[in-house]
Write a structure and sequence with these properties.
The chain is an all-alpha fold. The chain has one domain: MetI-like fold. The protein is 70% helix and 0% strand. The chain contains 13 helices and no strands.
Length: 281
């Protein structure tokens, strides 16, 4: 005989799935709304229809954005800055996470507290001090002046992800490799790095998405048009007294598409890395 599931448990399961479905709709609604509005004329956006696809979709909005929004140049700038920030943040957080969980050294708790504290510092509170410091070192309006804060603001979260994952790995693997004569760099590269692949994917993808969509620091530290990143394409379509709103929505879609594809492609790995260390055997 099959075991009957209690009614309360079934009701709880149904309620959970219903809540998750509502949450999914809430998350997907802005993307659908943005895409639909990108097919309208700018003057039609203030009508009463919220998600109605127009009878005559304005696909030329995307063509105008591609030309006037400098998508290629700004996109290349974003790719350079975001890739460098992602690589640097991933490598540094890997080393910091390993040092916190595996090595014994003084003041480790203080360093861990400082790392956690870095997650609660708001971006807006650092704009002016960083701008003054960067001005002293000639980093204003340079790619390095944007990469450094990107790495700094993603380092805390990434380090904690790696630390949680390293705690779930058995120390015996490293001890066995050390007894076989392997050096610490070789142990990190051939033993730890492959086992930490889920955490690495999580860290790399989340860092890439965070930096790809960032605008506040880019708008503060970059001045020349040659170095501006992809979110500035939306600003180029804003006039002095009015804006081409439909084209701006089309630009938002173009900016969002790489991030959405990247997240969907690595979603399983992200979930595996995010939950690593949650269950200890």
């Amino acid at each position: 005989m099959t075991e009957r599931i209690p009614i309360a448990r079934r009701i709880g399961t149904v309620a959970l799935h219903a809540g998750l479905a509502v949450f999914a709709v809430m998350q997907l609604f802005p993307l659908v709304w943005m895409f639909v509005y990108s097919l309208h004329r700018s003057g039609d956006l203030f009508g009463g229809d919220l998600l109605s696809i127009p009878d005559d979709p304005q696909w030329d909005n995307y063509a105008r954005v591609w030309v006037h929004g400098e998508i290629v140049r700004y996109g290349l700038n974003s790719l350079i800055v975001v890739t460098a920030s992602t690589v640097a943040s991933t490598v540094l957080s890997f080393c910091m996470g390993y040092a916190i969980t595996r090595m014994r050294w003084r003041r480790k708790r203080i360093v861990l507290g400082a790392i956690v504290l870095g997650m609660v510092v708001p971006v807006h509170a650092t704009l002016l001090p960083n701008f003054l410091w960067f001005g002293q070192f000639g980093l204003i309006d340079t790619r390095l002046g944007l990469i450094l804060p990107y790495v700094a603001f993603t380092l805390s979260f990434n380090t904690l992800v790696y630390a949680a994952h390293f705690r779930s790995l058995p120390v015996a693997l490293e001890e066995a490799a050390l007894l076989d004569g392997a050096s610490w760099p070789r142990i990190l590269w051939t033993v730890i790095a492959p086992l930490a692949r889920p955490a690495t994917v999580t860290v790399a993808v989340m860092t890439f998405l965070t930096c790809w969509n960032e605008f506040i620091m880019a708008n503060t530290y970059l001045a020349s048009d040659e170095l501006r990143t992809l979110p500035f394409s939306i600003i180029r379509l804003q006039g002095e007294y009015s804006g081409d709103y439909a084209a701006q929505f089309a630009c938002m879609v173009i900016v969002a598409v790489p991030a959405v594809i990247l997240y969907l492609w690595f979603s399983k790995h992200i979930m595996a890395g995010a939950t690593a260390g949650a269950v200890k055997e």
